[in-house]
Design brief:
The chain has 227 residues and is mainly alpha-helical. Helix content is 45%, strand content 9%. It is globular and about 45 Å long.
């Protein structure tokens, strides 16, 4: 298994990790029991819609730099000539049904399995594809000291990332020089100032849009492009 070497930086105490993990297990079990039928229906619809396996499985970098397989509902089909890892507004690869699933975050539901198995957490930095996390330097490597999350402050603040990328002349450069560094700073702050009640806030803000302004106030550094 591919592993990225990182400094063993710790900002979250062992007790906080224990409590956070217990919360993840309980909520993941509850979520799988409640939504297993919906996951299967989404998988079936996606399989028919994309004519591929409805589960999209991709290597991502997790805690301590270990690579794991993230599970999502497939929302895109292959289009000749388009190989970008970024999804932008109006991306022809996203099917109409896939767009609906993305809007309501139904494509994220299978990640409950990743949370239950300990590869992810409900709240944390989003797991990156290989090629980004291994470029982190110095204190930024603290991001790899926690499990990646389904949601989190950076995820909420950049919820319209596809629009930002679409408005850029060079999406890959914009992501590399603007978006990704901003996410790193936000995630670093989250870890250094970790509090369990903030995890609860981020989960609620994911479900209740009205609470997202509270997240903006909670984050020390909000990118100028969002103001």
């Amino acid at each position: 298994m591919f592993v990225i070497k990182i400094w063993r930086i710790r900002a979250v105490s062992n007790w906080q990790r224990f409590f956070k993990r217990g919360f993840d297990i309980c909520l993941a079990v509850f979520g799988i029991i409640i939504f297993s039928w919906l996951i299967l229906i989404c998988w079936l619809i996606s399989s028919i819609d994309t004519r591929q396996n409805g589960f999209y499985i991709q290597p991502r970098v997790g805690r301590e730099g270990k690579v794991f397989l993230i599970i999502k509902i497939r929302t895109m089909r292959s289009v000749n000539g388009i190989t970008s890892v970024f999804t932008m507004r109006g991306d022809p690869r996203v099917t109409q049904i896939g767009a609906v699933m993305r809007k309501f975050k139904l494509d994220e539901l299978p990640q409950l399995i990743n949370v239950l198995t300990g590869q992810m957490s409900f709240v944390g930095p989003r797991p990156d594809v290989v090629g980004f996390a291994d470029c982190l330097q110095g204190e930024d490597r603290i991001i790899l000291s926690v499990r990646p999350g389904i949601t989190g402050p950076a995820t909420l603040i950049f919820r319209n990332e596809e629009v930002l990328l679409s408005d850029s002349d060079d999406p890959e450069r914009f992501n590399r020089e603007v978006l990704y560094p901003a996410k790193v700073k936000i995630n670093r702050q989250y870890i250094k100032e970790y509090r369990f009640f903030k995890d609860v806030l981020y989960i609620l803000a994911t479900l209740i849009p009205a609470l997202r302004k509270r997240v903006m106030h909670d984050v020390e550094m909000v990118p100028e492009l969002l103001i």
